[in-house]
Write a structure and sequence with these properties.
128 residues, mainly beta, three-stranded antiparallel β-sheet, 0% helix, elongated
């Protein structure tokens, strides 16, 4: 089966792998409820897992909405922007439509300037 995400902190996962209950409650899947003592509430549905972007190496992934960029020292890093421009230094990225000016520490779009975004974190072949 596939993992799902319960929309509650420190939730209890139910045996059907589709529902969850708040911390401290017990799942009653057949009744469709969560119970704690005499208190009964409806089960919560798990949400689909977050999707990820597969990097060109076919192994590394970045969270959905990110861009895979070649990182300095090899491998890939995740830029927290969709369709970003990856800088040649392998450490920074710029928003889509901007160009990296690494020597100036800026992202440039004609006459508009934007500071370079935080350095990329190398993935080290781990799946997020």
């Amino acid at each position: 089966g596939q993992y799902g995400c319960c929309p509650l902190p420190q939730a209890v996962c139910c045996s059907d792998h589709l529902h969850c209950c708040p911390n401290g409650y017990t799942c009653d899947v057949s009744a469709g409820t969560c119970t704690r003592g005499a208190e009964t509430i409806s089960l919560f549905e798990k949400q689909p897992p977050l999707t990820s972007v597969l990097c060109p190496d076919g192994r590394s992934t970045c969270p959905d909405g990110n861009t895979c960029c070649k990182a300095s020292g090899g491998g890939y890093g995740c830029c927290p922007l969709l369709n970003a421009d990856c800088c040649s230094d392998g450490k920074h990225c710029c928003p889509s439509g901007y160009k990296c000016e690494v020597s100036q520490g800026k992202c440039v779009k004609s006459e508009t300037h934007h500071p370079l975004l935080q350095p990329l974190n190398r993935i080290d072949d781990r799946v997020l």
